[in-house]
Design a protein that fits this description.
The chain is α/β, with parallel strands linked by helices. The protein has 19 helices and 14 strands. It has a domain of 201 residues: Rossmann fold, CATH 3.40.50.1100. Helix 3 packs across helix 4, helix 5 packs across helix 10 and helix 15 crosses helix 16. The structure holds pyridoxal-5'-phosphate.
Amino acid sequence: MNLYSTNNKDLKVSIREGILKSLPADKGLYMPENIPQLEKDFIESIENYSFQEIAFKVAQNFFSNSIDSDTLGTITEDAINFHAPLIKVENNISILELFHGPTLAFKDFGARFMARIMNHYWKNENKKLNILVATSGDTGGAVAAGFSGMENINVTILYPKGKVSNLQEAQLTKWGGNIIALEVEGNFDDCQSLVKEAFIDPEINKKLNLSSANSINIARLIPQTFYYFEAFKQNKSKSKTSFVVPSGNFGNLTAGILAKKMGLPIHKMIAATNANDVFSKYIKQGKYKPTKAISTLSNAMDIGNPSNFARIMDIYSSTWNDVKNNILSYSFNDQDTISQIIQTHKEHGYVLDPHTAVGYLAARNYLKSHEENLILLSTAHPVKFAKEMKPHISFTIPYPAKIEEELNLVGHKQEISSNYSDFKAYLLTHLT
Ligand SMILES: *Cc1c(COP(=O)(O)O)cnc(C)c1O
């Protein structure tokens, strides 16, 4: 399988190169040269396959000429080692819980799979691969959990001091070993600037082999297609099925479009957004106007210029009509979100996190004018956002036992200033 850049279809690289590089030099995004078609037989008899077998079947279509089938089997088994149950909450709305991985958010699927693929591609090189990540909280934890213990790869995570939750900090700092957590005296933008500057610093690039575990790496998107198939398997309703996806950078939604193109009978994709509604506006008006993000309760979706928009344009040849025939989009504010969390708890005893609540609102809205079966992707466990939810709700959110333990671990971290010279000195003295 080769990949091309969305900015230039003639610029092709092998899937190995595309994954290790993350982004093409022309600032486009990598896309598979052709979207594989899965056999009809497989989709029709999907009940007979375990989640791990489904993951392997789908992955083979992308990796069979660069990773042997035994190795790929081990990679998918290790990466997809937790389940994604489909829970019926009310008539026509079922929730696919994607938060049973180590950091309680769907990003574990992408991060665990990408880590194992990169490790395989890199393990025989005689130099370390050094991954740098700036995080506002969630992505760093999933990446750390994904790469922990890999011999030939170091991960350096930069996070803003005092601006991540206790749980997030525990998930960044509990590892040690090949995972280095740097607590930066500054905000998320400072962390991101430090990483960006390191990537273009000739002295650093001469000594260290840098890479990124960026969310737009195609190796994070591919495993996100697996659970659309898994949801379909568990779906008992044989009526028309559409998916609702709480969206920020639209990676999760793009994975759903890929699953549909691979042959899964998905009727519509429904993008749920918070007050950051550039995509909803695009669907309504045909004009795409990126803006600055605004802060909301569902903060992992506070994105003013969704990075995967370029992939969606590529898939539908930038034709607005095709996009809106396949994707609907609705946007909701924080007040709506809180009301939905309270209502779903009261009516069904089910606790939604703020991101999933935005999705729930979109599902209800869609069902007002459609008679259909909806599957809503739940992107995070509510306990991850307990602090944000607490002022608005009167019930408590139980902590899973493994989280209680995590919070009591002593972390490994190093404080640094937001001056680039300090960060550079740290990298040059601590990494090889
Ligand atoms: C990252 C994230 C999202 C947004 O997913 P995209 O693929 O960027 O659209 C939604 N909810 C949660 C909890 C997330 O962490």
